[in-house]
Amino acid sequence: MNGVLIIDKPSGLTSHDVVARVRRILQQKAVGHLGTLDPLATGVLPLVLGNMTRLAQFYLASEKSYEGVIRFGFATDTYDAEGDPISEPQQPSLTLTQVRELAAKFVGSIEQMPPPFSAKKIKGVPAYKLARKKKEVVLTPVTVEIKQFEILAMEDVDSDAGTRACARFQARVASGTYMRSVAHEMGQLAGCGAHLQLLRRTAVAEFELEDAHTLEQLEQASQGARGDEAIADLLIHPRKLLPSIPSVTATDDIVAHIRHGRAVNLPELSRAREVKVFYGQRELIAISTRVAGTLFHPRIVLV
To answer: Domain residue spans in the chain?
Structure first.
């Protein structure tokens, strides 16, 4: 089966766990994901199936959107709620205005230190593997971009103490941004420590929560009387993929040339740098790149 499937990832599973589950459900080895989600996080996890795994290269720099909760009062070694505290608990009294002022410091292009428990590699070894063994993790800051970071509300974490230590937020960020690091660094600026309590990814590139299905829904579809047809209904329509790239519907002659990796003339798209080539309404057969004039050479062939 070929296509793009959006899973609403549950908390507690790694992205690799989800891929493994989908491989088992579909009885198909060619399954990959378009960007990891931490085990704690939930939400949009795009999967590519079959020959659509070749599209992964077009999503390496995809913008992502999140909603979540930052808890102030102590930091953790993982920068989220799954880690062990590394600072003494405090009961901060932060106002909405104060936290919004902190958040404003993170909007735009910033230097960010990745979490020690992350997939960033140190001499070929993922940082989290070193961190789990209590070995020194030496990472370097990277430039990331936070396009939107809005603190929606402050909420009580302990009504008896009367503290307002949880900040509910929405964020839109460029690829490579860690919201865990944002939470950790906000805690440092506030002087009380903080960590990411909850995180839900609401969008990746053109894919949103309304496109997502649970693993249970996928399992039910696979076991139903309609079989592959029911699973196909869960996939993203191919015409919705990579909306920034224009589309063209190919004739039989053009399809025959593309199947053999040959360049083709597409006069109606002479100004486009790249083009999605379809056969009929649903079969995406290639992404082609303009060579010169109206001549396009297939960059990837999907048939």
So the answer is: 3-59+208-236, 64-204, 240-301
